[in-house]
Design goal:
Organism (chain B): Povalibacter uvarum
Distance between the termini of chain B: 48 Å
Strand content of chain B: under 5%
Number of strands of chain B: 0
Shape of chain B: elongated
Structural class of chain A: mainly alpha
Order of helices and strands of chain A: HHHEEHHHHHHHHHHHHHHHHHHHHH
CATH architecture of chain B: Orthogonal Bundle
Structural class of chain B: mainly alpha
Distance between the termini of chain A: 13 Å
Shape of chain A: globular
Strand order of the largest sheet of chain A: 1-2
Strand content of chain A: under 5%
Keywords (chain B): Cell membrane, Membrane, Transmembrane, Transmembrane helix
Number of domains of chain B: 1
Order of helices and strands of chain B: HHH
GO cellular component, one term (chain B): plasma membrane
Pfam families (chain B): Oxidored_q2
Largest interface: A-B, 29 and 32 residues
Family (chain B): Belongs to the CPA3 antiporters (TC 2.A.63) subunit C family.
Helix content of chain A: 55-70%
Largest sheet of chain A: 2 strands, antiparallel
CATH topology of chain B: Helix Hairpins
Number of helices of chain A: 24
Oligomer: heterodimer
Number of strands of chain A: 2
């Protein structure tokens, strides 16, 4: 076994850490060099993520047994040492994070990176926190990586400064600091009762906890779950989300669209490991299901009420969070794979949508603000129909190659994003939603789902309809009714990332069969926690210790 | 000792939560600081309270675990202190920036209309 493959699981943490540190050594004036380093590192993370994804499919069975890779840091075996665990779900999340980061980084090189300092290192540290949270097999380590990603996100949300960002950032930071404190209380309680923080060992220990300690343990898990739900943006813990996402810059908001999914990932992982131990804690059972439904309803109302595209997408993020929470909370295992498909598609779509927002805002001569949006709108004019024609670009001083038919690209990308977010055919959003609905109906017919599952179906359909109404309205306003429009100049590195993300979702549409098969196997591994526990706690093969350099 | 410890945690977290819900940014940051003290103490006591027992193996003592304090919460609390210290410092900067940009120390960036 080559030492490189041996150490592959730790690289998603080490690469962004080292890159972020190295980037700090270069002055901001050495832009080309810094950007190249950051791009290379992000590309490397994508390659590493894809390789891990390949390894978890059991393609090379002699390396990882049953597709679960365990990396003991400093070769200390679990549960004494901290372990990193790669299974299909975490490899998928790693790849998704890198696949979103690469276009977001490329996009921000065009202008966002120059708005403030230390953008590139912060993005790398955010990636480090994300990757670490997906990989770790230890609760306290999960806390540390959450803090790393939050600390980086505090920096990123304030990137560019301005009163609106600082105001939204203040709330965002305060809420997340409290969430971190709740996380700590939960972790401390769980340690105090169970005597371990290793997630796999917890999966065994919970069943042996004495009845009189059980209440304390449940309380610990509940408080921990509360912290996860704050990050996941579950109602009523999500009032910070929309203002923060709107205030953040377009590429930052795009990166944030995966951050709520870290909370979902943690909920999913813990609820499976703890089995029915977690009920009636927020990690499982009816609470989570109704919480998810309420989150969706909140998101729907928000979408319908939003006057601004960015705000609308932030509520679309909330809706997708709610969908995922409700499908996890329904307790139907066959819903996991469709939910994962939906999640991947919605992360890519909202990421692309946030970046697109950054570009469409430039089509207006006046700066988009909440005040301007509420003001009466000009009627549809003839000029609006000539949108494809190149128009004089006197106002714009942005240097770069002008893409012909900029408005055509923007419009097309907008339509694709709308299809993806609302779940209309033919793109992958439809497949994800359809698979969710079909699995729910199947489960109800076979009596595996509670009767309340119809609520999920109804809310999911309502979310699609509400999204379509709200987005059509904003689309009409954005592309047709603006009389004094300047056709913006787009640079290839701004339009390219959006196109890249949309192409990824189209790829998912075309290869929906293989992707779904993979996700089903990922869900299968996830719902078989014994495999995970055995892989972590079984004695490591001697090769692990010897292969260390 | 337990009752004093529990009371200390209770008073700290109670005052912390009250301050956290106040409208001035300085009160919020003090509340966060108090809460994090309370939680640090809480993590510490989750290793059970013991007097005069070292957390690492000592040559003069036997290897009986009952003679030692649990080292894990002590390690956890160190990490938690560092992290909450750093995030509070960062929050302080944002607080000052908000004060400078909005001209008020209200958490919403403007005074409530009375």
């Amino acid at each position: 076994m080559s030492p490189w493959l041996q150490h592959l699981p730790v690289l998603p943490i080490v690469v962004p850490l080292v890159t972020g540190a190295v980037l700090l050594l270069f002055a901001e004036s050495q832009r080309r060099l810094r950007e190249s380093i950051a791009l290379l590192a992000t590309l490397a993370q994508l390659v590493i993520g894809a390789t891990l994804l390949y390894l978890t499919t059991d393609a090379v069975p002699e390396i990882w047994h049953k597709g679960i890779g365990v990396y003991s840091i400093s070769a200390w075996p679990a549960p004494y040492g901290i372990v990193l665990i790669v299974d299909r779900l975490s490899a998928l999340m790693l790849t998704l994070a890198a696949a979103l980061a690469l276009p977001a980084l490329t996009y921000s090189i065009a202008r966002w990176e120059r708005v403030g300092v230390h953008y590139l290192p912060l993005l790398q540290f955010l990636l480090m926190g994300l990757n670490g949270a997906f990989l770790t097999g230890d609760l306290f380590n999960l806390f540390v990586f959450f803090e790393v990603l939050l600390a980086a996100s505090y920096g990123l949300i304030l990137h560019g400064s301005g009163a609106a960002r600082v105001k939204a950032g203040l709330h965002y930071i305060a809420v997340n600091l409290v969430a971190s404190l709740l996380f700590l209380i939960g972790v401390a309680l769980i340690y105090g009762v169970a005597g371990t923080l290793n997630m796999a060992e917890l999966g065994i220990r919970w069943s042996t906890i004495a009845a009189e300690d059980r209440g304390l343990f449940d309380a610990g898990v509940a408080i921990l779950g509360l912290a996860f739900l704050i990050k996941a943006g579950s109602w009523p813990l999500n009032f910070w989300l929309a203002p923060a996402y709107v205030a953040a810059g377009a590429p930052v908001a795009a990166m944030f669209s995966i951050m709520t999914k870290v909370g979902i990932y943690a909920v999913l992982r813990m609820s499976v490991l703890l089995g029915d131990a977690a009920a009636p804690a927020p990690l499982g059972g009816a609470w989570l299901f109704y919480g998810g439904i309420a989150t969706m309803a909140f998101g729907i109302i928000g979408m319908l009420g939003a006057q601004q595209l960015g705000r609308l997408i932030a509520f679309a993020v909330i809706v997708s969070s709610g969908t995922l929470l409700a499908s996890v909370g329904s307790g139907v295992e066959s819903l996991t794979a469709p939910a994962l498909f939906y999640m991947v598609s919605s992360v890519l779509a909202t990421g692309a949508f946030f970046m697109l927002t950054g570009m469409t805002e430039r089509t207006r001569t006046t700066q988009v603000s909440e005040v301007a949006d509420v003001a009466p709108l000009p009627p549809v004019t003839y000029q609006a129909f000539g949108a494809d024609e190149p128009e004089p670009r006197a106002h714009d001083e942005e240097v770069g190659i002008a893409i012909p038919a900029v408005m055509a690209f923007l419009g097309l990308a907008f339509v694709c994003c709308v299809l993806l977010v609302t779940g209309l055919p033919p793109l992958s959003g439809f497949i994800g939603k359809f698979a969710l609905l079909a699995s729910t109906v199947d489960a109800m017919n076979e009596q595996r789902a509670p009767a309340s599952a119809w609520l999920l179906i109804a809310t999911l359909l309502a979310a699609g309809l509400a999204g379509l109404i709200a987005l059509t309205r904003i689309g009409v306003r954005l592309f047709w009714t603006v009389t004094e429009r300047t056709t913006p100049r787009l640079r290839v590195i701004e339009a390219g990332p959006v196109a890249f993300l949309l192409l990824l979702t189209m790829g998912m549409t075309v290869a929906a069969g293989p992707v779904m098969t993979f996700l089903e196997s990922a869900a299968g591994t996830l719902h078989n926690p014994d495999m995970y526990i055995e892989a972590v706690l079984s004695p490591q093969p001697p090769a692990t210790a010897e292969a260390r350099p | 000792m337990e009752i004093v410890f529990a009371l200390a945690i209770g008073v700290l977290s109670g005052s912390g939560v009250w301050l956290l819900l106040r409208p001035r940014t300085f009160q919020v940051i003090m509340g966060l600081a108090l809460l994090s003290y309370a939680i640090n103490l809480f993590i510490f006591c989750m290793g059970r309270l013991k007097v005069g027992s070292p957390p690492i193996i000592h040559a003069d003592l036997e290897s009986n675990p009952a003679l030692y304090a649990d080292p894990v919460p002590q390690a956890l609390v160190l990490t938690a202190i560092v992290i909450s210290f750093a995030t509070t410092a960062l929050f302080l900067v944002v607080l000052l920036a908000a004060r400078g940009l909005t001209g008020t120390d209200h958490v919403d960036g403007r005074e409530r209309d009375t």
